[in-house]
């Protein structure tokens, strides 16, 4: 019986646009039909976990060194926000740090400094004293803070109030021992080159301030930032360009910002969504052009500008405008083994496991269970 492999059909085209192998495409399409992923019992070893080299059972060299395995706390925001007086589950920063350290994580990335009011330290730790308390808990569990999606001034030119708060966040980052401080948003939501020029001026200035505090300032980007820049062709009624040279917005940002002071954090999931969504553009002459986005190639060409990643996974969903649905890290279709091999510099990049939809209103332990699955699958990646 001859195996049939139709690379010319719809599935083949979609698979290629998503950058996944045929086997992974077929398996994840099957997985996408499920409406939920069964999580293991809280504290138990997940069924999807693989042996790690730290257990002496691994084969090959780890693609993500043990001291580089991290998680953004947004993944477990329900746990840090839980009332410790009403649950036996880990709650608040201190207990969640202990749980994540038990799974094996060595790094965390903050998504703000708020927790439940009944947790030790109170609800708001966005202060010098709060940072000192957080640092004591990080040290207690052998964790390192590697970044934060914190405050980036919206004003430009800077007003004094925004500048003072920005400097407070730099001080907090230094107390926490971070190398990086950033934001969860794009430099601008605009598609126009002129607005990206303004954003570049702002980020170059903020980056210099951060550098003076010994920190690398980074922007975290979703799919829209990889859309095509509008930079030419006929102008619209407002005098704005309507067509593109084919350069992507974030590629342009990399060109016009200072590589010594402005850094980036690629959310690998959203970069693959962009690969799926943004593959054709209207050129200045009105012709339709194809340009398939290659996330790993962008990083490889700008390796030192990507100290941080969000390691987020997804299963293929052909009915979704994004092309993927989020799932626990290591259970989806994104080929992280190939991605990490291609970008190289494994002792420089810091992958942070993230799953936006990990918290559950009906399964309180789910986000921490998924965090554990994510760690085990991150540790299992081999050359």
Automatic annotation (TrEMBL):
The keyword Isomerase applies. Residues 1-49 form the signal peptide. Keywords: Isomerase, Signal. GO terms for molecular function: isomerase activity. Residues 99-353 form the Xylose isomerase-like TIM barrel domain. PROSITE patterns: TAT. InterPro entries: IolE/XylAMocC-like, TAT_signal, Xyl_isomerase-like_sf, Xyl_isomerase-like_TIM-brl. The keyword DNA repair does not apply. This is Sugar phosphate isomerase/epimerase family protein. The lineage of its organism: Bacteria, Bacillati, Actinomycetota, Actinomycetes, Kitasatosporales.
